Every structure is written in structure tokens, then in C-alpha cells.
Amino acid sequence: MGKKFILMADDDMDDTEMFCEALVAINADVICHCAEDGQEAINILNELEELPEIIFLDINMPIMNGWECLRFLKNEKRYQDIPVIMISTSSHQDDMNKAMNMGAECYFVKPNSFSDLKDVLFSFVSNLGNTKDAILNLQQGKSKHIFTCADL
Hints:
Layout: E1 4-9, H1 13-26, E2 30-35, H2 38-47, E3 54-58, H3 66-75, E4 84-88, H4 93-101, E5 106-109, H5 114-125, H6 131-140, E6 147-149
Parallel strand pairs: 1-2, 1-3, 3-4, 4-5
Antiparallel strand pairs: 5-6
């Protein structure tokens, strides 16, 4: 199996570092491209020959926030089919609904612990190319995580 790519956009370096550490602990063959804002994420996408399997977008970022980036991705033919997972510290239902209405696959409240983050990432990384299975796996253990996902 060749290398798989994901893209993570988050301006919080501590969260990005924890995300990358969790990812390496799960599967060192998955390469994570990291961006500090939505515009940088789009710039990275434009430079990649092979598109990522999945994109994780934080909502609150400078320059271009997650909502603006999600809108761009879902309106751009080259990127519209890449599954997008919105992540945030906000657990507001309005944000969750907005993410689903804008075309995100899932919305997750950032897990507080490294272990919980690994659980979330493990489900997605072990099901790259099939986010529906990842979502089903997460829903079975949903008491540990605050999230909402698109209808399957």
C-alpha cells in the first residue's frame, strides 16, 4: 500500500502537534500536511499532485477561517469530493448544524486527551476512503466524543 495523505488546518500549534503525534502513533504511513489557516490549506492543496484522503478543518483560524475554507472546498470541483471533518472547541449545536449544511462529513469537538484524539483519528485513518465506516465506528462509542455527522 502506498502512502496516504491527509490535511490538517489549525492555527493552534499545540493541537496540531498533538494531532500529528497521535497520527504517527496510529499509522506512520499516513502523511499529514499541516496548515495554519484556510488559505494556507488551499495553497497546499493547489501544490499537491495527489489529493488528501480527508481534510480536518478547525473553525476559528486567522486569514481564512474554517467556514470560508469549507465553502471554497465544496464549491471547487477538484476538491468537493474530499471528505471534510470540522473540528472546534465549540460544542454549539448551531455550529454542528452549519457544518452539516455546508457539506462537512462530520463535526467534532476537539478531544481533551491524547487517548481520545487517538480514538477519533484511528477510526478515520483505518477507514481512509470510506468515511461512512469511520463514522459508524465512532457512533458506536459516541458517549466519549461530542460530534455530529452527515446522514449515512
